[in-house]
Each structure stands twice: as structure tokens, then as C-alpha cells.
Design a protein that fits this description.
It is a single chain. The chain is α+β, with helices and mostly antiparallel strands. The protein has one domain: Cytochrome p450 (Orthogonal Bundle). Helix content is 52%, strand content 11%. It is globular.
């Protein structure tokens, strides 16, 4: 029965009460909402009506079955300030056109061809480590994934610019929460120091992307990579036109940032979790040794490393890099017997769903065995969705799985990582789920 009543949810005590709670501890806020009110929760966030859904069937209905009734919500609307109209932020027919043009870069054959770069770059970066040294592994993984995405998708050496990219991206991400506040559009127009820092950081990233575009346009080379595809692409199913430099920039910026930020976070959390779970770590090393015998992994090795993939799967369950997904309803929408009005926000959290006891007993425990084929088959599909789902599922999902497995194997064949004493580990949920204080770890050369 459909009702005009609101779903259960907390009563607002102050006009900005929930904004303060969400800004201060978003993971705790949404975990509490799911625990206290169940599979669908209603509350107002400022002037926005929010329907928080926490059931696989409801999530599938929004992301897959009725996806045409939704656009991206406020967070990604604000992301256009630095991502432009890329795949992550664009909508409608334009999004479909751009996805058709970009898709060939992520076909299985191309991803297989990227595997050598993934493995060799992971081995190269870790070969610089000194036995017993203490490093910020989050920065090391950012440097690695930036180098991989630069080489595979843009045939460019950007590793030397990893510090610039990292600083600019961190500045943008940390200022992002301010963009979600009421009156953010007004605040953006003011000559505030934070606005100037945001603009400078975006310009630093732009300069790198536009330099790659300009150099490739000038050379006229078709190197068979994503950048060449973007510059040469014509939409044969649409109007037959190609992309402007601005459109190429928006797609390149989206894939440049998303293609390294999320995977770097996944790898960082994986090293942390392995360091805290010696039995799983021993099994991980055992599989690598038996499969590789000390050599660098190849694309043929990826399916021969099932436990490594299970480790990565469990890491992304506990710490999904994209911890939140929002959609805005275009028209009135019926969900779980309730009517959500047009422009209501429907919010989903992989982090909350991945810690749901119905599907993951003892949900905060690290257990790669949750990802045996039989265990996966027993759970509903959208009890796990680190890459989203439906027509807007992350275009780089296969790329990320291949990169994650090969990088873990290439590094794990030689190294064991240990969390530095007294280092505070705390997730920071902004756009992605970063470790708030980095990840200080001591690297130990394996001698077993």
C-alpha cells in the first residue's frame, strides 16, 4: 500500500542540527540512522528532503530498474566546479554519448594490455623502498596509481608531478564539504582564502591535463590510448561529431582523478588490514609465492590469484573508496510504499550496507573468506556495490580490479607492511574514504 506519510526518521531539533551531525561524523550518523530506523529513513538536511535507503532491493530499484527517474545529487552537482561535464557528473543524452566514446578504452583486451604497466610500476615503486623504513603508504599508493593511470590512459609520465597532484587534490577534497553547505553558491562568490585555494588547486590540475592535450594535438600521434581516442573520437551512433578541447579536458580530468584516487585508497586500506590480520596476511603471501615464484605478475596470473582478489574485496567492503551515492528524483517516486516527491534526494551508502549484519555477520571483522564463490552467490547483488551499479556503474571497474590485484601481488611478493606504533587510523569520509592521518607503515623485506 502506498502512503503519503513519511518513512520513520529522526525529528529535527535545530534548523541546522543534522547538517552539523553529518559534517562532524557522517559514517556514524548514517550507521545510527540505519540501526535506529531500518531500511528506509526520512529526514531533512537543510532544505533538502532525504530518503536514506539501506536495502539491496531498494538500491537496485534506484540504480538499475528506475534509473531514468534520477539525476546525480548535490555532491556531484558541486563536483562540476572542477570535473566539468565528465562521465561522473554529466547527465542524459550527453552522458550516454560521452560514455560511448570512452568505453573502448576499458574493453577487456585493452585492460589486459595495461597489465604489464600495472605490475612493473608497482614493482618499480616498491623497489625504491628501504628495509625498515617508515613511509606514508597512502602517499606511496597515490604516487603508484597516478603513474599507472598517466601511462596507461594518457601515455604520459606524470609520476614526477605526483606531489603537485596530491597536494592540489587534497586541497580540493578537503574544501569540498564547504560546497555542500546551504548558501554555498553565495559563499563561492566571496573573496575568501578558501575560495582562492580551491581555484589555485583546480588550475594546477588543469595545467597538467591541458598540457597533455596540447602536446598530443600538436604531434598528431595516435598512440592507441584513451587520450588519442578522445581526441580522434566521433560519435558514430549520434551526430558524428568529435569532442572539443573542453570536453576532452572534462573526461580526462574525471578519469585522471577518479582513476587513481579510489584505487590508491583501496590499496592503502588493504595494506592496513593485512597488517592487522596475520593469518590472512600469511595466506596472501602463500598464494603469491606459489603462483609467482618471486617474479612480477602478468595478466595471465590475475585469475590465478583468487585469494588476493578476496582480500581486496573484503578491504573494499570495510572501507569502500566511494562511501556514499546520492540521486535526485526527477519525478515523484514510490519506494517501499512511500512517495518521495520530485527533487527529493535518495541516498545510499556502500559503507553502511557493507556493514549490515544481515549479510555480513560480525561486520567489522576482516574475513576474506566472505568472498568465496558460494558465499557471494548467497548474498543479494546490491548488498555489495563499491563501484555503484546500473547504467552509471563505474566505467573503470575492471581496470580497478586488475590494477588492485596485480599491484598487491607485485608488492607483496617482496614486502610485508607493519603499522607504525602509535599511528592513529581514522577514515575521512569526504568525496572518497581516505585515511585521515595518512597511513604510516614500516616496510619489511620478506625473508620467509
Amino acid at each position: 500500500m502506498i502512503t503519503n506519510a513519511y518513512p520513520p526518521g529522526p525529528k529535527r531539533r535545530l534548523p541546522a542540527g543534522f547538517l552539523i551531525s553529518v559534517a562532524g561524523n557522517p559514517l556514524g550518523f548514517f550507521m545510527d540512522m540505519a540501526r535506529d530506523y531500518g531500511d528506509i529513513v526520512y529526514f531533512k538536511l537543510g532544505s533538502e528532503q532525504v530518503y536514506f535507503i539501506n536495502h539491496p532491493d531498494y538500491i537496485k530499484d534506484v540504480l538499475v530498474t528506475n534509473n531514468r527517474n534520477f539525476t546525480k545529487s548535490r555532491g556531484l552537482e558541486m563536483s562540476k566546479l572542477f570535473l566539468g561535464e565528465g562521465l561522473l557528473t554529466s547527465e542524459g543524452e550527453f552522458h550516454l554519448r560521452q560514455r560511448r566514446l570512452v568505453q573502448p578504452a576499458f574493453h577487456r583486451q585493452r585492460i589486459n594490455a595495461y597489465a604489464r604497466v600495472m605490475s612493473e610500476y608497482a614493482a618499480r615503486i616498491s623497489d625504491r623502498w628501504q628495509d625498515g623504513a617508515t613511509l606514508d603508504v597512502s602517499k606511496e599508493m597515490m604516487r603508484l596509481t597516478l603513474a599507472i593511470v598517466g601511462k596507461t590512459l594518457f601515455d604520459a609520465d606524470v609520476e614526477s608531478e605526483a606531489t603537485d597532484v596530491g597536494e592540489a587534490l587534497t586541497e580540493i577534497i578537503e574544501l569540498f564539504t564547504r560546497l555542500l553547505l546551504p548558501f554555498a553558491s553565495l559563499l563561492r562568490r566571496l573573496p575568501l582564502p578558501a575560495n582562492r585555494r580551491f581555484k589555485r588547486s583546480a588550475q594546477r590540475l588543469d595545467s597538467i591535463i591541458y598540457r597533455m592535450i596540447d602536446e598530443r594535438r600538436a604531434s598528431g600521434d595516435d598512440r592507441g590510448d584513451l587520450l588519442s581516442m578522445l581526441l580522434l573520437a566521433q560519435d558514430e551512433e549520434g551526430d558524428g561529431t568529435g569532442m572539443t578541447d573542453k570536453q576532452v579536458r572534462d573526461e580526462a580530468m574525471t578519469l585522471f582523478i577518479a582513476g587513481h584516487e579510489t584505487t590508491a585508497n583501496a590499496l592503502t586500506w588493504t595494506w592496513f588490514l593485512l597488517s592487522q590480520n596475520p593469518e590472512a596476511e600469511a595466506e596472501f603471501h602463500r598464494e603469491i609465492d606459489q603462483t609467482l615464484g618471486g617474479r612480477i605478475p602478468t595478466v595471465e596470473d590475475a585469475p590465478r590469484l583468487p585469494y588476493t582478489e578476496m582480500v581486496l574485496s573484503e578491504s573494499m567492503r570495510l572501507y569502500p573508496p566511494a562511501w556514499a551515492i546520492g540521486r535526485r528524483a526527477i519525478e515523484e517516486y514510490e519506494i517501499a510504499g512511500y512517495k518521495a516527491p520530485a527533487r527529493a534526494i535518495v541516498f545510499m551508502s556502500p559503507y553502511v550496507m557493507h556493514h549490515n549484519e544481515r549479510y555480513y555477520p560480525d561486520p567489522f571483522r576482516f574475513d576474506p573468506k566472505r568472498w568465496t564463490p558460494e558465499a557471494k552467490e548467497a548474498r543479494p547483488k546490491f548488498s555489495y556495490f563499491p563501484f555503484g551499479g546500473g547504467p552509471r556503474v563505474c566505467i573503470g571497474e575492471s581496470f580497478a580490479w586488475m590494477e588492485g590485484v596485480l599491484a598487491l601481488a607485485a608488492i607483496g611478493r617482496k614486502w610485508r607492511l607493519r603499522l607504525a606504533p602509535s599511528h592513529k587510523v581514522e577514515p575521512q569520509p569526504i568525496i572518497t574514504l581516505r585515511p585521515k592521518h595518512g597511513m604510516r607503515m614500516t616496510v619489511e623485506r620478506r625473508r620467509d
